[in-house]
From TrEMBL:
Keywords: Carbohydrate metabolism, Isomerase
Keyword Isomerase: yes
Organism of provenance: Selenomonas montiformis
Similarity field: Belongs to the NanE family.
Record GO cellular component, one term: cytosol
GO biological process: carbohydrate metabolic process; N-acetylmannosamine catabolic process; N-acetylneuraminate catabolic process
E.C. designation(s): 5.1.3.9
Catalyses which reaction(s): an N-acyl-D-glucosamine 6-phosphate = an N-acyl-D-mannosamine 6-phosphate
Alphabetical list of InterPro entries matching this protein: Aldolase_TIM, NanE, RibuloseP-bd_barrel
MF terms in GO: N-acylglucosamine-6-phosphate 2-epimerase activity
Pathway in which this enzyme or protein is active: Amino-sugar metabolism; N-acetylneuraminate degradation; D-fructose 6-phosphate from N-acetylneuraminate: step 3/5
Protein name: Putative N-acetylmannosamine-6-phosphate 2-epimerase
Function of the protein: Converts N-acetylmannosamine-6-phosphate (ManNAc-6-P) to N-acetylglucosamine-6-phosphate (GlcNAc-6-P).
């Protein structure tokens, strides 16, 4: 199984664009991952099997794979069911990221069974969680690493403007597995802050790979009142 040890203190870049985003397309995400690698990324977080295959071919870095898919009977959209897990195993990614928040999975599936399926295929599990309790629970049922990805995106987690540094700190102090800081890291200072809080490594997306968000941050500096708000995708669920 993949060992996270080589990623300690290294930059992980999330390269994602959904169909409604300007950079949608596997060849583009492959190039984006190559650029991230040139900039020092040691691994890539990626969405969808076409992107994952292109990224593995072009950048040749370990991939944390996920599939965003919505189901009518659940709010979970990051690798929700065993169907997505099987697709990701076939795509070859070393690590499979899945929502391990305390919410009901679609189609009556159980998180424990997804973890077992991933381990049986020799892959590692990255748990995307939104609270301290969810992090403990995820590690307790076998997650090999935890990421603060969903903090700010469940109705019951704190809606912080930047990364949830307090959550990183509590989880890093409590868990034997790596705790990745993910979500709304936009500056080098924030990278230093999450590392100081005990993060194993930062996972950074929009601030590097969503140019529409980067442009909007500059546009806001010029005209804070009138500038358009540009949404990071998050499956259309968050503003
Ligand atoms: C909440 C959710 O669905 N997050 C997604 C998870 O894969 C991605 O859209 C984010 O870009 C990623 O987590 C990195 O975060 P940020 O883009 O803030 O650096």
């Amino acid at each position: 199984m993949f060992s996270f040890a080589e990623l300690k203190g290294r930059l992980i870049v999330s390269c994602q664009a959904l169909p409604d985003e300007p950079l949608y397309g596997a060849p583009i995400m492959g190039r984006m991952a190559l650029a991230a690698k040139e900039g020092g990324a040691a691994a890539i977080r990626a969405q969808g099997t076409a992107d994952i295959r292109a990224i593995r071919e072009l950048a040749g870095l370990p991939v944390f794979g996920l599939i965003k898919r919505s189901y009518a009977d659940s709010d979970i959209y990051i690798t929700p069911t065993s169907g997505e897990v099987r697709e990701l195993i076939a795509a070859g990614c070393e690590v499979i990221a899945l929502d391990m928040t305390d919410r009901v999975r679609p189609q009556g599936e159980r998180t424990e069974d997804l973890v077992a399926l991933i381990h049986a295929a020799g892959r590692a599990v990255l748990a995307d969680i939104s609270t301290y309790e969810e992090g403990l629970e995820a590690a307790g049922i076998g997650a090999d690493a935890v990421a603060t990805t969903m903090s700010g995106y469940t109705p019951y987690s704190p809606q912080t403007d930047g990364p949830d540094i307090a959550l990183v700190k509590r989880l890093a102090a409590a868990l034997p597995v790596p705790v990745f800081a993910e979500g709304r890291i936009r500056t080098g200072e924030e990278v230093k802050a999450v590392m100081q809080a005990g993060a194993f490594a930062p996972i950074i997306g929009s601030a590097i790979t969503r140019p529409q968000c980067i442009a909007a941050s500059f546009a806001r500096a010029l005209a804070p009142e009138s500038s358009r708000s540009v949404r990071a995708d998050h499956d259309g669920r968050t503003g």
